[in-house]
Amino acid sequence: MTQLAAILAVTHGAARRRRPAHVPTTELPQIHGRNYARLINDRLLVVMRGLVDRLVIPELSSIVHAAELASDSLTVDLESWATTLTEIISNVRIQMARAVSDKELAELIDRQVVSGVMVANNHLNRTQLRAILGVDILGADPQLRSLAAGFVAENVGLIKTIPVKYFDDIERIILRNVQSGRRAGEIESEIRKRWPAYSENAKLIAADQTAKLSSQITKKRHGALGITEYYWRDSGDDRVRPRHRKLGDMSRDGKIFAYKKPPIVDVRTGRTANPGEDFRCRCTAEPVIPGIDDPEKKTRRAPTYAEAKAQYFRERAGREKTFFEATPEATHEEFAKREKSFVAVFKMQHPEHRAIEKKTKAAEKRKRTGTRGTR
Ligand SMILES: [Zn+2]
Q1: How do residues 44-76 score in pLDDT, each as one tens digit?
Q2: Measured between alpha carbons, how far is 28 from 124 in angstroms, rounded to an integer?
């Protein structure tokens, strides 16, 4: 018996508990992503920019000068300035590796990111389960050590690529600009223009990784409790991608997904994912607990094939209207082409489609030709 089943047996007995209308979310607050972004900024971005400021920028004029000499004279080695540049950049790489070790990064991520996410996730899941179950589940923590270690190792590798890319970028900028005869000052401002992009990228990585970690922990916690299925819950704001909103809507209509058989998140490739696994996905899995009644359960029955088909055509009519309102000059072929992805989704969500359509077509054919089968 799983821990959850044991708790349910003790707390509920014969009385079945109803799922509350409002279940709190387990979406990780953004503060954790910001904490991680700050760590990346302080320990990597500031250091790598400092090195470029100290070891690269002051050399720009002499590189430009050497390049000018090379183009004026036939006796000077044409490539010597480029070799000097490569040497400077590889020195910068060496200094970077000395300034920030993998061990230090691992410790910082563990202490400043992982532990915070774990505490927050614990609180969020406890609150959510308490709301659903009506009791507090104590001592339900699964072993998270290997999950945390995997996250730390993977993230050290991931964020270490930031300075690697940055120095590649700097070297390319200098090469290209020196070759096209730009002055040192111009090259310097080109280099500085690249900085905001790196800081933005760090923020994206931090937000994505912390949300992913949290959803992995939730999945582990659910697994430890014997929870295998969930309702897909999106963040409910306008940043939710349409496909995920659709999965959330399906959940509200009664569709339950299993961790072992996640729904399709990319219609084009057929790729599947659990909530929180897509890039920057903030969706969460709200646990389905056997024995807990859903107050809307009666309406939450999954639609039949015929209902789903009717629903598809209703939505299609709406899409057609907005499409031609937005682009009156468009042709019906263009609309049909656009509609293809929706048809693909429908077919994937209803694998029974093929068999039913075949049957219907065969029946129609029999009707037309008047054959009564081969009995
Ligand atoms: Zn999502």
Answers
A1: 999 999 999 999 999 999 999 988 887 776 665
A2: 8
